[in-house]
């Protein structure tokens, strides 16, 4: 079980804010590394759980969203991978007016119909 929790969420002292940010980044990095390691070990269900936890914690973080799509493709769940990509594309456009990078787009490109 991967819990989402902030370090001392109601405290605004400078040292707490800095430590909270460091903790947030370390947690995201740990989740992404875990997802990669689990994917390499072909433990795809657990890899997806870790990747989804990272994406839920930071919805605009492309590295986390990319891992979700990679795991879904590795599982053979192409429709889910495309849906995940499209959801990220929509969120990124709405929130920041941006498009996903070509790196994540290339993950689903082979599955697009031509003609």
Structural account:
- Helix content is 70%, strand content 0%.
- By secondary structure, the protein is mainly α.
- Helix 1 runs parallel beside helix 3 (62-74), helix 3 (62-74) runs antiparallel to helix 4 and helix 3 (62-74) runs parallel beside helix 5.
- The longest helix has 27 residues, at 14-40.
- The radius of gyration is 16 Å and the shape is flat.
- The mean pLDDT is 89.
Approximately how much helix is present in the residues?
55-70%
How many distinct beta strands? 0
Residue stretches low in confidence (pLDDT < 50, at least 5 long) are none
Biggest sheet architecture: none
Derived from helix and strand composition plus strand pairing, the structural class reads mainly alpha
Q: N- to C-terminal separation? A: 44 Å
Average pLDDT, all residues: 89
SS strand fraction: under 5%
Q: Write the H/E string, N to C.
A: HHHHH
How many helix segments?
Answer: 5
Features:
115 residues; mainly alpha; 70% helix; flat
